């Protein structure tokens, strides 16, 4: 079912029209600047309405269904417009998403109370390492931060074991191989429906050189003024 919803989303049109180019369509839970990202793990399932309809029928919903779809208002770039576009696209496969948007101050506590069937969530990686995302979003809910934002209660024992190996592995090449394996498995399992990495533009004089960090923070030590 999640794969059907995934393949019914025309991410290229959303990137061009809704986001006006300020988005990088993504197939992974992490951005390219995060350790563990690979091009192989970033491949998206193709936008394919016919394939999505077949998956719907196979799941027992040939005529579609109604579902609650919650979205933040003003938290992410064009978040309401993004969710509205997805609602229209899902309608093509018979999914009647009951769209509702809330200010982030009330939206965030609501989704943490598991009061939304489908929800929009942006995810940054302050550690710049994929384990942070895999532990928080993919691992089964448990202690010590495990699954603390796995709000859909996704659970897969094989993924849990793999993520635990990543936590303990100290050899970087081996660890990154395990991360790629976990990301590829997550792609097939569709624990989440990835959309894009939002692009936040900076403006500066030609005489100023400053790297644009993935977390959108200014690193003053790297600032150069010519």
- The whole-angstrom Rg is 19 Å
How many domains? The number is 1
Named CATH architecture:
Roll
- Residue stretches low in confidence (pLDDT < 50, at least 5 long) are none
How many DSSP-defined strands? 7
State the share of residues found in helices, binned by percent.
Answer: 25-40%
Per DSSP, the total helix count is 8
Features:
38% helix, three-stranded parallel sheet, single chain, Dipeptide-binding Protein, domain 3, alpha/beta, 226 residues
Question: What's this, in brief?
Answer:
This protein has one domain: Dipeptide-binding Protein, Domain 3 (Dipeptide-binding Protein, domain 3), CATH 3.10.105.
List the helices and strands and how they pair.
Layout (H helix, E strand, L loop, with lengths): L1 H6 L3 H8 L4 E3 L23 H10 L6 E9 L5 H13 L3 E9 H9 L5 E2 L10 H9 L18 H12 L3 H18 L6 E3 L9 E2 L14 E2 L1
Parallel strand pairs: 2-3, 2-4
Antiparallel strand pairs: 1-5, 6-7
Helix pairs in contact: 6-7, 6-8, 7-8
